[in-house]
Description:
Helix content: 55-70%
Largest sheet: 6 strands, antiparallel
Oligomer: single chain
Number of domains: 3
Distance between the termini: 55 Å
Radius of gyration: 23 Å
Strand content: 5-15%
Amino acid sequence: MSRSTAIALLPVRAVGRSASVQLRSLAGGDRAALSNAARAATADDTRRTLGALKGGALKAGQLLSTVETLFPQDPEGRWRTALTAMQEANPGLPFAEVEPVLAADLGARWRERFSAFDESPAAAASIGQVHRATMRDGQEVAVKIQYPGIAEVMSADVRALSIALRATSLVARGMAMPPLVAELRTRLGEELDYEQEARWQNAFAAAYEGDPDVVVPKALLATRRVMVSQWLPGVPFAQLALTGTSEQRDRAGQMYQRFFLESPTRVGLLHTDPHPGNFRLVGDRLGVLDFGSVLVTPGGLPETFGRLIAGMLVGDDVAVEARLRADGFIKAGKRFEVAKLAGYLAPFTEPARHEVFTYSREWLRTNFGTINDPRNPDFAVALQMNMPAEQLFTHRVWLGLVGVLSGLHATVSVREELVRFLPGFAAGLAGGDAPKG
């Protein structure tokens, strides 16, 4: 209840600031300055509240950071700063509170495993914090320690989210809410198991060992609540977006896009946490971190997504509707206006129209400013789709990818990459995808 109250008070305080702006501007105050100050205060309040709550609340904040460009923009960029800070710069717990986890999982003499251990966290995330250390053999490592009691916190957050999603289903009829809640519970439960995360991380590390474009640190030791991995240096994407050259941002964006397109086939797993804090530029390679949220993808990404995007590009509404019905996205006997879906899918389809595309904050804000407005009739069309849980996660990852590329203002090759790596896309463009009979 205390966590729910803390989150519920965020919009209450924001409304209070808005009312204050109205009153003070009527009294002669500078409305623009007052509005900017209110937005900055709300951004800081959101960052502090979600950062302190950890768990599912902070995980939601990190997800929002992938599309931070859609939030109100103030001259000082406080929303951008607040949301990007949730990627890594969250307050950690005092070491005395997490040390018992190390002692319980690694033994009372855990310090003997290291020649040096920094008790100040190098990064703090939703379910654990990372400390930099040096092994006895001189190897630099990252020690990830799970917050004590976080499993109960995540369980409470999932219950609260379950109630919210069931309420949403009253509006978004046809959305597969029970499967989605089950999928979320599974995903968050898996993130609490560092032994499973280590196995996934090492699967990626093995698949990309010696790769010229991607580097994944190996997990060296793992218990359920502690994981020790090779330390990965580099420039985080949030910093790269601010200080990187155009060449560095384009290079990072191209490798980032390819990683999500290629790895489901190459590794048989999809990294489902695309927020920028998990990625960095290591020299001229893409460094990838945090494999707690992973979707098993035998055979690669589902072809339905590639077929849908290609069908929208071809402009054959009849074929697109037939494919959507065949793939189970539209229930039998239900009317569906495919033409209106084009506007809703523009952030996905527009880049695919180009061999080379430049993502930008302005482009993303323009697209999402109209398609995510419930007053827009195209918005209602999307809610009519019967989206299976696994497809929702694939679409969420792609949305995050588009948001991060826009934040980097990256110019990347798109059409050739989709033809090469996205299952179903090439066949859909060729017109050989429509269901027969």
